[in-house]
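Bench notes, afternoon.
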Amino acid sequence: MNRIYFDNCLTSQPAPEVVAAMLPYLRDKFYFPKNFILDGSGIQNDLDRFRNIIAASMGAEAEELHITSGGTSANNIGIKGYLMANAARGNHIILSVIDYPDLLTNASFFEKSGYDVTYLTADPDGFVKLAELKQAIKPSTVLFMTTLVNHVVGAVQPIQEIRKVLDSSGHKIALFADACEAYGRIPLDVNKSGVDLMTVSAHKIHGPQGVGALYQRRGIALMPVKHGVNRVDNLETGGVSTAAIAGFAKAVELTFQDFDKKTAYIRELSDHLLHRLETEIPHIMLNGPRGMLRAPHNVNVSIAYIEGEAIMVMLDLAGIMVATGSACASQGLKPNYVLMALGRNHEQSHGSIKFTLSRYNTREEIDLTVEKLKGIVAELRSRSPLYNKE
């Protein structure tokens, strides 16, 4: 049975062209770069070309890009490296309670190490409150971190407005953006956005798992937090997968070719999905903003009176993969922290379903999914003591 995949927030299907681009480096071109032999020099030239492709996709220079073993590695290298290199400049960090776990766990690590951390709240749609950010800034503030596209509700943070608030402080505050959910979904330009550090991941854009990148603006100091032999990068030390980097570059080429057309197609699909959900399933609520304030691939809804985990399992049995904010399906058996921070109650968090789409999805898949979901919701509600059938 062909399965329908709507969990592209977690990871995405590698494009066939990506797999093909990787194969030569798995079969024949397995050499490490920088050796004083023809084959090693050829690999170095290939890696330089791949880095240029990836950097150009975000308006960066190749020298500003560090290839990493994934988004989490890039986040750790960027956050820890910046704070350690700039410890003399200040010890105050600002981020939001709805940020991605990489950011929150790094903030917690530094808080336990003696840093001063401010956790901002968010509005009901998942946006950072700019007035609260401005009020939180101190002379000791050295870093503001944000998740550019929220991983749960798809809210696109106003990054340029955030940059203006930081600049109004009168001293340098670095802007760190986790763009792993944003990259390939919305236009990104490191210079227009004003970010100082930004992370992206290949496997969210139909590239391979296990490879990502960290953008480091010229003049921003980072201290190495991983020590070892410098094969390709002084910050991500050790051996590298040239095949993964080749796949990353190919995924970038495919994603950003006719980028506007691809993202418009995905937004059209998500708009169609949301319209059908809201008009055909009663007692349903959108989580996050509407329209262009939301990343095009994300639709997150709460379906009242039933558990999201039960919906997810029944859809899975029907060959459809989605995600849920149900406590039973989450790490730590807790309701989704983002939805709770946005003012949803436990029942709304437990009843949430997240669809994240890609260019490989079709309108026919969405129509089939909604028809299956309607039957599942009716069946589960018929068993629910909370549901008023009148």
